[in-house]
Amino acid sequence: MSGSSMLPIILPMAAFALAASISPGPVNIVCLSSGSHYPIAKGLTFVTGATLGFVALFLGIGAGLYSLLTVMPLLEDVLRWSGILFLLYLSYQLFQHDGRLNMQGADNAPGFWAGALMQWLNPKAWLASAAGTGAYTNADEAYLLWLFAALYLPICWLSLASWVYAGAFLKRYIRRPLVLLSINRTLAACLVISALFLLIE
């Protein structure tokens, strides 16, 4: 299949991956928070975990993992409540931060495994993966799933990384603790709202 004949397949996949990855959500909020509180490298470690975690979930769902949610409704409840508790935990940590730019606490930054776990505990990530694989792949052409995953990998990483750099921009130009404290509380509230959306869905 030539490159030109692949464009009608690649472009919609890429657009879907970009829209799903860069739009605000719990993972993006944590990326923004990490960039505004810790060294960029710490934020990018979280981004890498979140990206690889999502791609692994995406491939698993493409291979039939999503069917588990239909035959085991309890699993969906477990995912939802685990996700809610994890978001509330992250929100509490952010709310407790005093707004001071102290890099000595960088070891407390959410890392690789937190990023990966956050994707697997997010029912929306499961639904987005199911929607994407359902719309753009099929069982007869397995290469489409791998093509989609290959597109998702850089798009998701760059999208999430842009939120880390946005947080670093805030840290660089808004150094007053009171301002950063306000940003912390706002981001913490956003995570609580995200948890509430999981609760009512």
Question: Can you give a write-up of this model?
Answer:
- With 201 residues, the protein is mainly α.
- It has one domain (27-96, 110-200).
- Helices cover 81% and strands 0% of the residues.
- The protein has 9 helices and no strands.
- It has helices spanning 3-22, 26-37, 40-62, 67-71, 73-96, 112-120, 123-136, 143-173, 177-200.
- Helix 2 packs antiparallel against helix 3 and helix 2 (26-37) packs across helix 8.
- The chain starts with a helix and ends with a helix.
- The model has no long low-confidence stretch (mean pLDDT 82).
Give the secondary structure arrangement, pairings included.
Layout: H1 3-22, H2 26-37, H3 40-62, H4 67-71, H5 73-96, H6 112-120, H7 123-136, H8 143-173, H9 177-200
Condensed summary:
The chain is mainly α.
Sum up the overall morphology in one term: globular
Category by helix and strand content = mainly alpha
What is the averaged pLDDT score? 82
Q: From the alpha carbons, calculate the radius of gyration and give it in angstroms.
A: 18 Å
Strand content: under 5%
Number of strands: 0
* Major sheet summary line: none
- Low-confidence stretches at least 5 residues in length (pLDDT < 50)? none
How many alpha or pi helices? 9
Secondary-structure element pattern, one letter each: HHHHHHHHH
Distance between the termini: 42 Å
- The total domain count is 1
Helix content: over 70%
